[in-house]
Amino acid sequence: MIPDINLLPEFERERPKTKLIFLLLVLLWLLLFAGLCLIYWQMKNDNAFLRTAEQNLTMEKAALETKLSQNGQQEGPSLENLVAYAEGLTAPASLLIEHLKELLPENGYLVQYSYNDGQLMVVTDFETLTDLSAYVEKLGVSEFFSDVKLNEVSAFRLEEGEEEQTDFAVVPRYEATIQLDVNRGALKKSGGEQGE
After folding, report:
1. Where is average pLDDT lowest: 24-33, 82-91, 114-123?
2. How far is CA 152 from each of CA 21, 82, 99, 114, 149, rounded to the nearest angstrom?
3. Which architecture, in CATH terms, is 91-158+170-191?
4. Residue 191 pLDDT > 80, yes or no?
5. Claim: this prediction has a pTM higher than 0.90
6. DSSP β-bridge partners for residue 119
7. Which of 81, 108, 112, 171 is deepest in the core (most CB within 10 A)?
8. How would DSSP label each residue in 113-129?
9. pLDDT in tens, 141-152
């Protein structure tokens, strides 16, 4: 038997880790480059779409502005006309309050007064229903009001005690809510030019 003697050492090839790392880095760079190219291509398409949309909106805006300027020149009222119209709507409120107080009976009181766009809401106190009916009749005849509506009438006592006792000597008062439509023409004729 012959011995097998090998004086040369056995050379085992090591797997090259550097080649594997290099290949992984190249693959990562290729993926990164492909992703950046995809993002660039997508942004380029979005940019083109947004530019066409911007151009369309700019043309639409210009068309609307020309249409608005044409309509504004043809139909729009002037500032002077609007101011004159607004001044024509105003009416002196103090004249109405004075007139309402003049028509009240001796023991009648004006409690609340509110004016809104040609309608007047008045809350008054009276001693008797006869005084109330006479006041409503005077309001109906007045030239300042075109319509008179009696919305609500309620009775109350001036002094309410803590105990409920029947006292026939205390006469209840009446509170009335009256809605009036103001005749602006008559109001302006009588004092509207004074500028109150």
Report:
1. 82-91
2. 97, 39, 22, 16, 9
3. 2-Layer Sandwich (3.30)
4. no
5. no
6. 116, 181
7. 108
8. EEEETTEEEEEEEESSH
9. 888 888 888 888
